[in-house]
Design goal:
The complex is a heterodimer of chains A (279) and B (249). Chain A is α/β, with parallel strands linked by helices. Chain A contains 12 helices and 10 strands. In chain A, the strands form 2 sheets. Chain A has a 6-stranded mixed β-sheet with strand order 6-7-8-3-9-10, with helices on both faces. Helices cover 73% and strands 2% of the residues of chain B. A two-stranded antiparallel ribbon of chain B has the order 1-2.
Chain lengths: 279, 249
C-alpha cells in the first residue's frame, strides 16, 4: 500500500510549493490514474512515490510517504527501487545503455536476478511490450516511441510491486498508447501489480484505470472511482481537466431532462444511455 | 558525422574478440608508434591499422575516418615543418629534419587515433565497460562514466544539429561558407548545450540509481567475456608489434 500523509514539497529555489498537504492512500493492486492541468504537481507526486523525491531531487519535504510500510525518507533509494519502478517523463535521459538488450539487462543484473531467470524475464518484458524484434537494435536507431517502450520494458522486467509511470504514452501514437495501457492492465490484473500512471489522455484513463486522482495547484482535489470523479463534470472543467465527450453527453442529458442520468464513461455507455432514453 | 560513433554489428574475428584484447591491441599499436622514429615502421603500422578495419568488416568506415584525420594531419604537418629549426635548410625556412619530424609526428597521430576509432565501431560501449569491470576489475562507477560519455556523443550531435536547424529556419545563416562566421554563431550555442547536457546526465544518474546502480558488483554482468583463440592471436600480434618497433626503431 502507498500511504501519502500531508505531503508538502517545494523544489530548491522555487517560490511556491509544488505539492500542498497531499494525503492519498493507494491500496495494493490498484490502477490509479493521476490527471490535472500542467503545473498541478502530478510529476512531483509521481516522483515522491518511488523516493526519487527526496533522495535525488532536493527541496523542502514535509509529511510522509510510506510504501509497504517503508518510509521513503528513511530508506535508501536502492531499497525502495526493489518495490517501486518509476518510468520518468523524459525518455531519453533514463536510458543507460546503447543496445536494447543491455538496457533490459541493466536492472536485472544490478538487482542480482539469478542467471537462469534472466532470459525468461527478458523474453517476458520484450514480449509484453511488443518489442521482441528490437532486442539487438541500438538505441540510437530507434524512434521516440520505440525508445519509450524500451524504457517501460526495462522496468516490467524487474517486476516491481508498484509501477509508477509519468506520461508513458507521451511519444506514442494512439494505437501504441492503447497497447501500453492494455499491458498495464494485464500487469495489474494478472500479476497484481499496483499501477500509478500520470496521463493527459483522459480517454485512456477512463477506459483502463479504476481510480482517478485529480490534481490542481499542488493538491489532490478529487479522488475516487472513475465514475465518481466523472460525475462532477462542471467541477472538472473548472479545474481545467478535459472530460471525455461521453461523460459530457450524459451530464448534458441529465441537465436537459432534469433527472439523474448515469455517467457514461465511454462511447458504448453513451450509446446505451441514449438508447434507453429514446426507448 | 553522427554515424561516426555508431557501432557496426557483425561477426568478424574483431567483433568476437574480447574487448580487453582489443584495448590491449590498440595500446600496443600506440606504444609501438612511440617506440620508433623509423618512417617505414610507422607506415607499416598505419597499414596495419587499416587492416584492422578490413578484418573488422568496416573498410569503408576505416577509410572515411582516415580521410577525416588526414585533414588535421596536413595542418599539423605544415606547423611542424615550419617550427623545427634543426637540420639543413631546403627552401625558405623549411629544413630536411623539419620535414622528417613533421612526417613522423603526423604518422604517429594517424597510427594512434585510427585503431581507437575502429575499435569503437566494432564494440558496444557497454561491452567495453562490462569487460573492463569483469576482467580488469575497474570500479563500475568509472566504467559507467565511460559508457555514458560515449552514449551521449551522438545525442549531443543530434541536439546541436537540431538547434542549428531551428535557428536556420528562423533566419540565422548557419549555412554560410565563411568558417569564422559560422564558428562565431556556434559559440553562443555551447552554453545552453552544456547546461542541458549536465542536467540530462543528472537525470540519467538518477534513473540508473533507481535501477540498482549502487548494487552493481563485478559479478553482476550477465554476459561473460572469455578469451579464445582469436584473443591469443591478438595478444601475439600485440607483442610482435611492440617487439618489432623496439628492435627496428
Amino acid at each position: 500500500m502507498i500511504d501519502i500523509r500531508s505531503l508538502t514539497f517545494r523544489y530548491d529555489g522555487a517560490e511556491e510549493d509544488a505539492l500542498r498537504d497531499v494525503t492519498l492512500e493507494i491500496p495494493d493492486g490498484a490502477f490509479l490514474g493521476i490527471i490535472g492541468p500542467a503545473g498541478a504537481g502530478k510529476t512531483t507526486l509521481a516522483l515522491s512515490v518511488g523516493g526519487i523525491i527526496p533522495h535525488e531531487i532536493r527541496g523542502d519535504f514535509y509529511g510522509a510517504v510510506k510504501v509497504d510500510g517503508l518510509d521513503t525518507a528513511d530508506n535508501k533509494l536502492t531499497d525502495l527501487s526493489r518495490l517501486v519502478g518509476t518510468v520518468f517523463q523524459d525518455v531519453e535521459s533514463q536510458i543507460v545503455s546503447s543496445v536494447v538488450e543491455d538496457e533490459i539487462l541493466y536492472g536485472l543484473e544490478n538487482f542480482g536476478i539469478p542467471r537462469d531467470e534472466i532470459e525468461e524475464r527478458m523474453d517476458f518484458a520484450l514480449g509484453q511490450v511488443g518489442i521482441a524484434g528490437l532486442r539487438h537494435r541500438t538505441i540510437s536507431s530507434l524512434s521516440g516511441g520505440q525508445r519509450q517502450k524500451v524504457v517501460i520494458a526495462s522496468l516490467v522486467a524487474l517486476r516491481p510491486k508498484i509501477l509508477v509511470l509519468d506520461e508513458p504514452t507521451g511519444e506514442l501514437d494512439p494505437s501504441s498508447s492503447r497497447q501500453i495501457f492494455s499491458l498495464l492492465r494485464s500487469l495489474n490484473r494478472e500479476y497484481g501489480m499496483t499501477v500509478v500512471v500520470v496521463e493527459q489522455k483522459i480517454m485512456l484513463l477512463c477506459e483502463f484505470a479504476e481510480r482517478l486522482a485529480v490534481m490542481s495547484e499542488g493538491r489532490v482535489v478529487r479522488d475516487g472511482t472513475v465514475r465518481e470523479v466523472l460525475g462532477d463534470i462542471a467541477g472538472l472543467e473548472a479545474i481545467g481537466v478535459n472530460c471525455p465527450r461521453s461523460a459530457l453527453f450524459s451530464s448534458l442529458l441529465s441537465e436537459k431532462l432534469g433527472r439523474e442520468v448515469p455517467v457514461a464513461v465511454n462511447a458504448d455507455e453513451a450509446v446505451e444511455t441514449a438508447r434507453r432514453i429514446i426507448g | 558525422m553522427t554515424d561516426l560513433f555508431q557501432v557496426v554489428p557483425g561477426n568478424s574475428p574483431l567483433h568476437r574478440m574480447n574487448p580487453v584484447t582489443k584495448i590491449v591491441l590498440t595500446l600496443a599499436v600506440s606504444v609501438a608508434a612511440f617506440l620508433t622514429d623509423n618512417l617505414f615502421v610507422l607506415l607499416f603500422l598505419l597499414a596495419f591499422d587499416l587492416m584492422i578495419g578490413v578484418v573488422g568488416g568496416v573498410t569503408r568506415k576505416a577509410f572515411s575516418i582516415f580521410k577525416g584525420l588526414l585533414k588535421v594531419s596536413v595542418f599539423l604537418f605544415i606547423l611542424q615543418a615550419l617550427f623545427v629549426r634543426r637540420g639543413n635548410r631546403l627552401f625558405w625556412i623549411v629544413t630536411d629534419e623539419g620535414l622528417l619530424t613533421a612526417a613522423a609526428v603526423v604518422l604517429r597521430l594517424l597510427v594512434v587515433c585510427l585503431p581507437l576509432a575502429l575499435i569503437m565501431t566494432v564494440t558496444q560501449p557497454s561491452d567495453i565497460a562490462n569487460s573492463l569491470v569483469q576482467v580488469l576489475h575497474l570500479p563500475y562507477a568509472y566504467a559507467f562514466t565511460l559508457t555514458t560519455a560515449i552514449r551521449f556523443i551522438p545525442q549531443f550531435m543530434e541536439e546541436m544539429s537540431g538547434i542549428m536547424e531551428a535557428q536556420t529556419a528562423r533566419g540565422v545563416e548557419f549555412d554560410t561558407k565563411n568558417a569564422a562566421k559560422k564558428l562565431g554563431m556556434l559559440l553562443p550555442l555551447c552554453v545552453p548545450l552544456l547546461i542541458s547536457s549536465v542536467r540530462r546526465t543528472g537525470a540519467t544518474a538518477t534513473a540508473a540509481k533507481a535501477r540498482g546502480f549502487e548494487l552493481r558488483t563485478r559479478q553482476s554482468g550477465y554476459k561473460r567475456y572469455g578469451f579464445g583463440a582469436v584473443d591469443l592471436m591478438g595478444f601475439l600480434v600485440s607483442a610482435a608489434l611492440i617487439a618489432g618497433a623496439a628492435l627496428i626503431r
